[in-house]
Amino acid sequence: MVGGGGRSRRRGRAPAALLSSAAANRTDHSLSCWYCDYKIYACNDMIFNLGSKHARYTRAWFSIGVYFSLVALVGISLLLLWDSIGAFHVRGGSISAWLPNLLASSFSVSIMDTLIIIASTILSIAFHEFGHAVAAASEGVQMEYVAIFIAGLFPGALVALNYDLLENLPLFSVLRIYCAGIWHNVMLCAACLLMALLLPVVLYPLYMSGDGLTVMGVPQVSPLSGYLSVHDVILSVDGLNIRGTDDWMKMLDQGTIEKISSREFLGGSQSYGATTSGKGYCVPNSWLDASKNLWQINDKLACPDELIVFGKFTCNSSTTFSETDRGSEKKEAESKYCLIAKDIVKLKKCGNGWWGTKDDESNCTCLEDEYCLVPVLAPGFSWIEISYARPYSLECLKQEGNLSSPHATNNNNGPSPCAETFVYVGDLSSAPRSVKLSPYRPRWALFLFIADVPYFLENSLSCLLHVSAALAAVNCLPVIFLDGDAILETTLRYVAWFTRRQQRVIIKLCRLLWTSLSIIMFSRFLYFMTVYYG
Question: What superkingdom does the record give (predicted)?
Answer without folding.
Answer: Eukaryota
